[in-house]
Amino acid sequence: MTLAILADIGGTNTRVALADGKTVIAGSLSRYSNAEYMAAGKDIAHILSDYLARAGASVSGVCVAAAGPVQDGVATLTNLDWTMDAVKLSRATGAGRVAILNDLQAQGHALGHIAAQNLRTIVAGPSRPGASMLVVGLGTGVNAAPVHNTPWGRVVPPSECGHVNMPVRSDEDLRLVRFVEARLRAEGEVAHAGVEEVLAGRGLQTLYAFAAAEAGAPAERTSAEILAVLDAGSAVARHSATLYTRILGQMLADLALIHLPYGGIYLIGGMSRAMTPHFTTFGLEAAFREMRRVDLLARDFSITVVEDDFAALTGCAAYLAAGGQG
Q1: For residues 220 and 226, what is the distance between their CA atoms, to the nearest angstrom?
Q2: What is the rounded distance in angstroms from the CA atom of residue 134 to the CA atom of residue 144?
Q3: What is the CA radius of gyration of the chain?
């Protein structure tokens, strides 16, 4: 058995597992709190070495999926003060083969290796086998990456499109942009209204605060509280969910026209799963399939939610097994 160690570094936790070839070994998964390691002055290298020491395992490969940009073999996490490169990961694990992927790249490599019961279609449409796909992450952050199948193997280019501008199509959208900018400025953050600010987990909180202000009764709630009052019929929560769904549909439509994912669009992450029961009610398909000068959106592309929380690890295993490194 030739083992590899895999890690998926999210904004809150890091998931670590072992793989034999492209198969993640059942029962090998462990979760680690990023905050706990940061408080102790430690990072991903310590997590990996601690995992291997506990498991008593020796590995020949390591693949890490990082929630942040990867450039020239160096990953810098967007929501954590961690940086990693091949030397650090090899030293921590003893592995001779090292791969560092953006987390959305890892999710892209997982497509085609996810069990059918973990895929839920929310917008039906044609899906061409072997065609390009698009994976979109909605969680602690927001990002998307195209997935291209070529005669030489799968290619998943990195991306940071969660920081593109919010779509502005109405006076309300413009008021929302100004609200987001003011909110970020007050928090000492860069006052840029990117789509991540309204579609990530914290984004639903921002949309609720905006909807409450629009109703003349400013209020704040956590994402979990918003989802709970949404189920109870709260008008402000329904306004928030309507905004979330419409902005997501418009972003997905733009990305679909840019990348032409005839093999399907796949949503991953905690927010995509939390909002899945509400997408039909609040009109995701209508927002996505709006008429434009070309009619591609009206007749092409499907949207599917990936309900496998560990797909990034599967993607890491598939990438290593296919000979990927770097």
Answers
A1: 9
A2: 7
A3: 20
For residues 9 and 51, the answer to whether their CB atoms sit within 8 Å is no
| Nearest residue to 5 via CA among 63, 66, 92 | 63
C-beta separation of 268 from 136 below 8 A? yes
309 with 274: CB under 8 angstroms?
A: no
In the beta sheet, which residues pair with residue 135? 145, 266
Planar angle of CA 93, 57, 65, nearest 5 degrees:
45
**Tens digit of each residue's pLDDT (9 = 90 or more) over 166-208:** 999 999 999 999 999 999 999 999 999 999 999 999 999 999 9
Helix, strand, or coil (residue 54): helix
The number of helices, as runs of H, and strands, as runs of E, in the chain is 13, 15
Contacts of 107 (CB under 8 A, 6+ apart): 65, 135, 137, 145, 266, 268, 306, 311, 312, 315
Tens of pLDDT, residue by residue over 115-153, are 999 999 999 999 999 999 999 999 888 999 999 999 888
Which uninterrupted H or E stretch holds 24?
A: strand 23-24
| Helix then strand then coil, % of the chain, to nearest 5 | 40, 20, 35
Q: Which of 95-104, 209-218, 263-272 has the lowest mean pLDDT?
A: 95-104
pTM: 0.90
